[in-house]
């Protein structure tokens, strides 16, 4: 039988819960100990103590105590709920869901347990279970609109659009008092319902609903854009034209509105005069709009536009026009116009502008970028033009940066890094140029120097220095570049550490959904929430993940192929003298790191003494037990570790040939021949003439000649099917 608490101890137990929720872990632990002194077998208190211990980083002890609590009070919904929370915080979602469901059997009326279960189900994309949980929550509290909306979202995510619409309509009919005009939740719910109708392919009905029900919605821009789109899809061109013209009047720099207006008017590429008339109309109506002047350059010459941009000294002129280089005529015409502008400027005896970034300087800058661009590259000419521009204005950061880029494309990375650092020194308060200088230093394998450069813009009080702050800010470009630099320098441990840090950042993004499953419903931001869910489902398609994952897989492959090389890089094969020196250096580095960490902590405590104690409580949880990646480099199963990166890479980027090649390399070494054959087949479908793909095909054939007969009949059959 569970122990019953006295009134005083029951109040103390409620205090334990409050302390946990407010992260006052020491106070909560002390209160729990007081209860357990008199009631050592009180399961609920034992569970809360376990929860606090888990928050302090004592995971194993917390699980042991939670299990003891269940033995003491097996039928306590609190014990089972806490047990589920422990599994959830340790990312074992399957066991967490089981614990939540058992807790619900014991306490079916608990809204908190039901809510936690629903959140976990949508997090794991168990939409069928999510529908059931949301339906139960709706039955318990049908007066809350967010419960109706949540059930509609559950059906929507499950793919049942008609049921989602029916749920929203049912609630609307049940409301007796009309919502106010400023009701944001109602406005968003109406637009969400409209998007569901549209997704069903019923554009006519979606337009009708938009014009009747959504005309007073607060997001006026969304209503205008949806109406214009629906009218265009329905072929009502005159009304669509009016709608897109209204959108252009609202934002004359939105390029997509112009393109859609041209499409609605049925103008083809040959109708240059008609298209020009539209853009001339809006460039006259909105003189400060760049879009109306730039877009016609897709089919017209750019002389007037270039002259205007050069006179204004707009640095982004080349970036705005380089998309035109797919047309060989325009690619040849643009530099000719820039050179013509220079000749005219030199021929006229007009006084030089006080701002050297305008006029001649802007034209020289454009030509330097033109000849540095990969589609029109002539690095000798690029360097010539940028030197002229620098002579005109030696303190221009843009000119110096372009010079550094030219050196990079010449293959002289050291010179490029030096030039980019000189550009940085021209404006030491600019974070962008600081970042570029650090990036070039990393490309030159100057990891320490790059970190010091970035440290000029990181928080000085951060424990762990600039690196810790960059990790906190999730600077993935730095982590990837730093990892690649360490890999080139032969430091496998630090390279792996950086790649795993990038992997963990994507895990954090995945976990960040937890906060929004409830928040978005509470705030009524439904459309943004659904967009977020769909974005999260494709999260690891991101180029940052692909690059870091591919680097990690290649490194693990090299570790598998040449384990002695890896050991040498980490000093395991060094002679006694070298080993002693490395040990001494490591000890010194450790002392310096501890000293720096202590100083940073003291500075932080001085700035905010009240926060220092709280941070100290959470320090155990945040501590990294392998800051230099030594344990990662000592792996006994590099191919198994590579799979952690490879599986999402193949799942979310199947059209990237580099990923398929990496997949083949891993699977063939793991003797997973069917999976290797699938990767080979996918790579051949993408580019069968790729040199590496042809090498892989030869490797596969050679491997099959040696092992095919020894494989199981089903495997042989599957291989023949894949390789057919």
From TrEMBL:
**Cellular compartments per GO CC:** NatA complex
Which superkingdom, per the lineage?
A: Eukaryota
Keyword Lyase assigned to the entry: answer is no
Q: Where is this region: Disordered?
A: 566-636
According to the UniProt entry, the coiled-coil residues are none
**What SUPFAM superfamilies does the database record attribute to this sequence?**
TPR-like (SSF48452)
What's the name of the protein? Answer: Podospora anserina S mat+ genomic DNA chromosome 3, supercontig 1
């Amino acid at each position: 039988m569970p122990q019953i608490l006295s009134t005083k101890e029951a109040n103390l137990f409620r205090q334990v819960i409050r302390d946990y929720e407010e992260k006052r872990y020491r106070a909560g632990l002390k209160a729990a100990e007081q209860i357990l002194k008199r009631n050592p077998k009180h399961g609920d208190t034992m569970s809360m103590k376990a929860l606090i211990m888990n928050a302090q980083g004592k995971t194993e002890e917390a699980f042991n105590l939670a299990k003891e609590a269940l033995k003491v009070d097996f039928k306590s919904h609190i014990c089972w709920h806490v047990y589920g929370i422990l599994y959830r915080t340790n990312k074992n979602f399957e066991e967490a869901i089981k614990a939540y469901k058992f807790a619900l059997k014991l306490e079916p009326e608990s809204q908190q347990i039901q809510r936690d279960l629903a959140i976990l189900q949508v997090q794991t994309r168990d939409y069928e279970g999510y529908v059931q949980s949301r339906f139960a929550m709706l039955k318990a509290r049908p007066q809350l609109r967010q419960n109706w909306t949540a059930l509609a979202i559950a059906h929507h995510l499950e793919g049942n659009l008609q049921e989602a619409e029916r749920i929203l309509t049912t609630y609307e009919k049940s409301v007796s008092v009309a919502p106010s005009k400023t009701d944001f939740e109602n406005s968003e719910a109406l637009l969400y319902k409209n998007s569901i109708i549209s997704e069903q392919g019923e554009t006519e009905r979606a337009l009708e609903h938009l014009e009747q029900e959504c005309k007073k919605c607060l997001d006026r821009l969304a209503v205008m854009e949806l109406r214009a789109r629906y009218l265009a899809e329905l072929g009502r061109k005159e009304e669509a034209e009016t709608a897109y013209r209204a959108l252009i009047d609202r934002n004359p720099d939105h390029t997509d509105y112009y393109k859609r207006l041209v499409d609605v008017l049925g103008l083809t590429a040959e109708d240059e005069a008609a298209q020009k008339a539209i853009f001339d109309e809006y460039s006259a109506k909105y003189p400060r709009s760049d879009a109306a002047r730039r877009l016609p350059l897709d089919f017209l010459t750019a002389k007037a536009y270039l002259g205007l941009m050069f006179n204004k000294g707009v640095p982004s002129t080349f970036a705005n026009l380089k998309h035109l280089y797919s047309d060989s005529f325009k690619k040849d015409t643009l530099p000719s116009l820039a050179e013509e502008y220079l000749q005219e400027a030199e021929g006229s005896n007009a006084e030089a502008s006080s701002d050297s970034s305008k006029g001649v300087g802007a034209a020289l800058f454009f030509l330097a970028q033109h000849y540095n661009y990969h589609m029109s590259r002539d690095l000798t000419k690029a360097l010539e033009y940028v030197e002229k521009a620098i002579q005109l204005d030696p303190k221009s950061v843009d000119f110096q940066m372009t010079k550094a880029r030219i050196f990079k494309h010449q293959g002289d990375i050291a010179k490029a890094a030096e030039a980019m650092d000189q550009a940085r020194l021209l404006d030491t308060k600019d974070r962008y140029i600081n970042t570029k200088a650090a990036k070039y230093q990393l490309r030159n394998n100057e990891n320490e120097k790059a970190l010091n450069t970035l440290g000029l813009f990181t928080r000085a009080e951060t424990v762990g220095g600039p690196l810790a702050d960059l990790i906190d800010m999730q600077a993935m470009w730095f982590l990837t570049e730093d990892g690649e630099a360490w890999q080139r320098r032969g430091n496998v441990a630090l390279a792996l550490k950086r790649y795993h840090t990038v992997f963990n950042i994507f895990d954090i993004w995945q976990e960040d959904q937890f906060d929004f499953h409830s928040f978005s419903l509470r705030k009524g931001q439904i459309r943004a929430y659904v967009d977020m869910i769909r974005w999260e489902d494709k999260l690891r398609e991101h180029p940052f993940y692909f690059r870091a994952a591919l680097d990690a897989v290649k490194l693990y492959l090299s570790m598998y192929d040449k384990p002695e090389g890896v050991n040498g890089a980490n000093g395991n094969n060094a002679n006694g003298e070298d080993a002693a020196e490395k040990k001494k250096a490591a000890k010194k580095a450790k002392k310096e790191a501890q000293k720096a960490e202590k100083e940073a902590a003291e500075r932080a405590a001085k700035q905010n003494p009240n926060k220092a104690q709280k941070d100290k409580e959470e320090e155990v949880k945040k501590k990294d037990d392998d800051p230099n990646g030594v344990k990662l480099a000592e792996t006994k199963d590099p191919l198994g570790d590579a799979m952690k990166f490879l599986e999402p890479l193949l799942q979310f980027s199947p059209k990237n040939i580099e990923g398929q090649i990496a997949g083949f390399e891993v699977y063939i070494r793991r003797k997973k021949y069917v999976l290797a054959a699938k990767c080979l087949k996918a790579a051949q479908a993408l580019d069968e003439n790729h040199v590496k793909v042809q090498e892989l095909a030869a490797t596969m054939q050679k491997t099959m000649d040696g092992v095919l007969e020894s494989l199981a009949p089903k495997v042989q059959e599957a291989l023949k099917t894949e390789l057919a």
